[in-house]
Amino acid sequence: MGIHDLPRNESGIATALDVLRQRFGARLETGQALRAQHGHTTTWLATQAPDAVICPQSTEEVQEIVRICAAHRAPVIPFGTGTSLEGHVNAPAGGISLDFKEMNAILAVHPEDMDAVIQPGVTRKALNTHLRDTGLFFPVDPGADASLGGMAATSASGTNAVRYGTMKDNVLALKAVLPSGELVQTASRARKTSAGYDLTRLMVGSEGTLGIITELTLRLQGIPEAISAATCSFPSVEAACNAVILTIQYGLPVARIELLDALQVRAVNTYSKLDLPETPLLLLEFHGTEAAVTEQADVFGGIAAEMGGSGFTFTTREEDRTKLWQARHDAYWAALTLRPGAKGISTDVCVPVSRLAECVSAAQARLAADGFIAPIVGHVGDGNFHSLLLIDMENPAEIARAEEFIGWLNDLAISMGGTCTGEHGIGQGKAKYLERELGPGAMEMMRAIKRAVDPLNILNPGKMGLG
Amino acid sequence: MGIHDLPRNESGIATALDVLRQRFGARLETGQALRAQHGHTTTWLATQAPDAVICPQSTEEVQEIVRICAAHRAPVIPFGTGTSLEGHVNAPAGGISLDFKEMNAILAVHPEDMDAVIQPGVTRKALNTHLRDTGLFFPVDPGADASLGGMAATSASGTNAVRYGTMKDNVLALKAVLPSGELVQTASRARKTSAGYDLTRLMVGSEGTLGIITELTLRLQGIPEAISAATCSFPSVEAACNAVILTIQYGLPVARIELLDALQVRAVNTYSKLDLPETPLLLLEFHGTEAAVTEQADVFGGIAAEMGGSGFTFTTREEDRTKLWQARHDAYWAALTLRPGAKGISTDVCVPVSRLAECVSAAQARLAADGFIAPIVGHVGDGNFHSLLLIDMENPAEIARAEEFIGWLNDLAISMGGTCTGEHGIGQGKAKYLERELGPGAMEMMRAIKRAVDPLNILNPGKMGLG
Fold it and tell me: Which ipTM score applies to this complex?
């Protein structure tokens, strides 16, 4: 997997632990189970536990901890909910895990400006629960109820990025502690700015390697007056993808447009007792006024028919929408039942939409040839899809074959003008693909920035191939 | 003004000119008029001419020129159409101006992916003319027909950023030459990515201080099936701003929402022979299906009435739309007639929308108290507005008072959680406000990045306060 332990600065880490223990007492936790849980990843990557875990309660405490760690060259690894998929929270060189669960305050909501200022430990669902009565919501929705700090660090997105964008588009500003202990405010609360380098977007997706995020200002959206949902089956992945392309070219402001492949539909039919045709399925959602969302679903129906779609159904009633989208909501759990006992390992390529059908079809063909059970779900409006490889984690040979497949698919996506990661990030496993994707110039620039901002390489070392 | 000549590396520049002349012959131009034009700014900043101008014809030539200049520590200043407002193309330490007018090829248009790959010298109007038959357009529309490379470098936007975003949102990827001569490809053509640091957005808005942009991949939008335009007069700036806030909170997907203040309306009435009430005016545009844009304009009419608006008018017919928006289209030229012979100097603050009415009103009050003639136009959906101070450029005392006003307004916007620049950039004049706005941490980080990427400080030195 290309994940290795890195050289440990034993004496520096030991001294940092001593100093931190003097300062924070029992709040510096070193129990084995807790440490292992903080170096735990939700993919096949092995756990690499930090030496200690601490839950900072304020930005000032983060500054203090970082200064102590920097003085003794001990690594610092920020931790949200631990739901990242690419080993982002692993501690290959040891060090201190900063768990943000106690920095979970919603500091301000500005309904007129449609923004909120929060601490990084707030989860997306907690924020949306808090916002319920304001008529506003935060749209970015990865599968897990992740912390918003972690979502910013990995540049997460989800099913409605096609309408509302990713974390890159929805973080207005943030505060982060640099390795020097200095606090950076990246931007003002204005909705647009040309003031200096875009440090906000440099930090978003930097996976904890440039600074420790301690505050986020997020854009909010108005809860739409009406929502319509639509589903339609297609004879082939190509037909479904062509419907996606036409829908977006037509300018339909689709809020969600998701693809399930035939295998995934079969899994859901069994799991959720549905009787959908076992062919590729598109699920859509439109947000707007009552009249607009009805019209939009209707226009999509016409496009779908033109592309050979069948079984087009749409509704604006909430309970019917839930039923219509059940196949998508149950997709992950349904997929796992295809091979009981197996663990799902997800790919994350994203290609130009014109190449999506070709990429998905090629992936399906090779998955079948290699004998994998691996249903596919796609955020197809963005050209992003996940094949969930169901793997027996006790079988090293099978894991190696999965790894080979993933490498092949990443290279295929890159050759199509795409990326190895649409929303999961680089972390530990994908560093080599990053270099293939962007080439030596970009790596040189990223490494120069990393060295300039974190010359001691104490911030989340061993990630993104940056040191 | 805070604009100064910087120390010149005379011998290095002389050697670089010699080497470049040997290589490029008469293509290295040193005529005084041409040089002055390339250090010319469209604001009050004094011209600081480069030592020579060259028009590169390929990325390889840019690499070659940058390598020669780096070897002899001669500054390199990229030049698009010279329409930036903050001295971005000035050469305070001398050096070579790279004029991109000959790198103006549209390299590829991918209609299915809704993107285009272009050279930086293509102007926004040239791109949209080229796209005319594809049903697609590029939405970012600053006042000038600027080059897209320059628009990316300054993070430009315009009237429809509220719907389509700014350059930050519409550059998918770019290529840039680093001071080392190395070429960086910042991202793939995928519509979303979590692959590494967001070098695309770091470059956008970096004002030529980190790399020389030689290629851009731009997101395109579908030309809407229908457009509706609406205008409405309001008794006060506050009433107009409250209508803006409600419109956006309601989730109306407004494509444009512009404010003219009473003085600007008076100017347009005279200039364009209109008879609008001389009170604040909002102009809106909606993009979508025929039914949607009619409904949206209608919903806005209701909001406007609730906020005390009067004279609400809307239309979807193209010739009527043009007439309805005439007040906005003619705003700049109409403003200039308020004081014949004067030159317009534009402010560019952007504040959270909740503070917009207060900020505009305070600006109006002080402009009146100071005796300035300065109509206001605002991209109010974003909280961004420009007061155009009409100044006698032969009167140094008046210029000094204008400078004082601008500083006061920048500080006011910053104190309201806003920025000194929504879309014009920092350039030479605003470096001190950048520091006040973001504080020492952000400046430290920006300077560290600048030093790491451009250790010799040869890329557009003297801009953004970064060296």
Answer: 0.96
